[in-house]
Amino acid sequence: MTPLTLSVNIDHVATLRNARGGTHPDPLAAALAVLEAGADGITLHLREDRRHIRDHDVERIRAAIAAPLNFEMAATEEMVGIAERLRPADCCIVPEKRAELTTEGGLDVLRAGPFLAEAVQRLSAAGIRVSIFVEADPAQIQAAAALGAHAIELHTGTYADAAPEARAPHLARLREGAHAAAAAGLACHAGHGLSYETIGDIARIPEVSEVSIGHFLVGQAVFEGLPAAVRRMKALIAEARGG
Ligand code: PXP
Predict the structure, then answer these.
(1) pTM
(2) Catalytic annotation on 72?
(3) Among 37, 44, 94, 206, which residue is least crowded by beta carbons within 10 Å?
(4) Is 24 a catalytic residue?
(5) 13 vs 17, 32, 211, CA distance in Å?
(6) Ligand 1 site, residue 27, Cβ cutoff 6 A
(7) What CATH number corresponds to the domain at position 34?
């Protein structure tokens, strides 16, 4: 099988820092630690309300790491402008609602306004690989391809949050979605809510080439440390991938 990379989302290191308003724990230090532990890239989401990652985090991390940076963002003029200036390797366009605790579902590409197409075009013109976070719905995936996206990221949250005995239909849908992405010529990423328990099924989907995992790893850091959690996740990915 093709390699499966792990991009670690460090948003919740910033959540913890912001709880006390100081500088510890530093998301840049966390990014360096997870890369040292074997992560393949770093994901961060600069939200409109700056509830976790702040502008200076993005600037510092962009300047300090050579590994691919995946900038998660809403399709807004402000975020496209920041991405055009900083030129991360990847941007993942997500829906964003102010009142949500976390990204609640995939972007509705079929009903998105014209700015989504402009965002994909401008980011691509800046040399950034663009992915769109979607549900495992072939129509949404084909719409992402029609906009010129390089990849889609499948929303794994519904699968991951389901009781173990209820996951099978969600997993089947994700497999179909991965297949539809490959058929549309798109790279297929996956993420949201993944843990040690759920990564295996996702990593065994051959078309999935990258997973983005954050909350579970930062939570697990409380018990075993962030580098150890990343190493264990990488080992589970390698095992599921047959290597
Ligand atoms: N992928 C996307 C598009 C997300 O919005 C998030 C959450 O920020 C993740 C992956 C990571 O999800 P989690 O923190 O639950 O691992």
Answers:
(1) 0.97
(2) yes
(3) 206
(4) no
(5) 6, 12, 18
(6) no
(7) 3.20.20.70
